[in-house]
Amino acid sequence: MLMSVINMRLRDEGVKLSELCCCEDVDMDELKDRLSRAGFVYDEEHNCFS
Fold first, then answer.
1. Which member of 6, 37, 48, 49 has the lowest number of beta carbons within 10 Å of its beta carbon?
2. Count: domains in the chain
3. HSE of 41 in the Cβ direction (CA atoms, 13 Å)?
4. Which residues pair with 43 in a beta bridge?
5. String of b and e for 9-18 (b: at least 16 CB within 10 Å)?
6. Can you give the pTM of this predicted structure?
7. Rounded CA gap, 12 and 38, in Å?
8. Which domain holds residue 31?
9. CA dihedral 50, 45, 2, 9 (to 10 degrees)
Protein backbone atom coordinates (compact mmCIF):
# COMPACT_ATOMS: atom_id res chain seq x y z
CA MET A 1 0.00 0.00 0.00
CA LEU A 2 2.88 2.39 0.78
CA MET A 3 4.26 1.97 -2.73
CA SER A 4 0.87 2.76 -4.27
CA VAL A 5 0.47 5.94 -2.23
CA ILE A 6 4.00 7.13 -3.05
CA ASN A 7 3.56 6.42 -6.77
CA MET A 8 0.19 8.17 -6.80
CA ARG A 9 1.68 11.28 -5.17
CA LEU A 10 4.67 11.29 -7.53
CA ARG A 11 2.37 11.03 -10.54
CA ASP A 12 -0.43 13.35 -9.42
CA GLU A 13 1.76 16.08 -7.94
CA GLY A 14 4.41 15.90 -10.66
CA VAL A 15 7.30 15.99 -8.20
CA LYS A 16 10.51 14.01 -7.91
CA LEU A 17 11.00 11.58 -5.04
CA SER A 18 13.54 13.87 -3.39
CA GLU A 19 11.06 16.77 -3.42
CA LEU A 20 8.26 14.64 -2.00
CA CYS A 21 10.50 13.33 0.78
CA CYS A 22 11.65 16.85 1.62
CA CYS A 23 8.05 18.15 1.80
CA GLU A 24 6.99 15.26 4.02
CA ASP A 25 10.19 15.27 6.11
CA VAL A 26 10.95 11.65 5.16
CA ASP A 27 14.44 10.24 4.73
CA MET A 28 14.62 9.22 1.06
CA ASP A 29 17.20 6.47 1.62
CA GLU A 30 15.11 4.98 4.43
CA LEU A 31 12.01 5.01 2.22
CA LYS A 32 13.87 3.39 -0.67
CA ASP A 33 15.29 0.75 1.69
CA ARG A 34 11.89 -0.02 3.19
CA LEU A 35 10.28 -0.44 -0.22
CA SER A 36 13.29 -2.40 -1.48
CA ARG A 37 12.77 -4.96 1.31
CA ALA A 38 9.21 -5.37 -0.01
CA GLY A 39 10.57 -6.00 -3.51
CA PHE A 40 10.14 -2.54 -5.06
CA VAL A 41 12.85 -0.49 -6.75
CA TYR A 42 12.73 3.22 -7.56
CA ASP A 43 13.02 3.99 -11.29
CA GLU A 44 14.34 7.55 -11.67
CA GLU A 45 13.62 7.66 -15.39
CA HIS A 46 9.92 6.92 -14.87
CA ASN A 47 9.77 8.54 -11.41
CA CYS A 48 8.04 5.60 -9.76
CA PHE A 49 8.56 2.45 -7.75
CA SER A 50 8.01 -0.87 -9.49
1. 37
2. 1
3. 2
4. 48
5. ebeeeeeebe
6. 0.92
7. 23
8. 2-49
9. -140
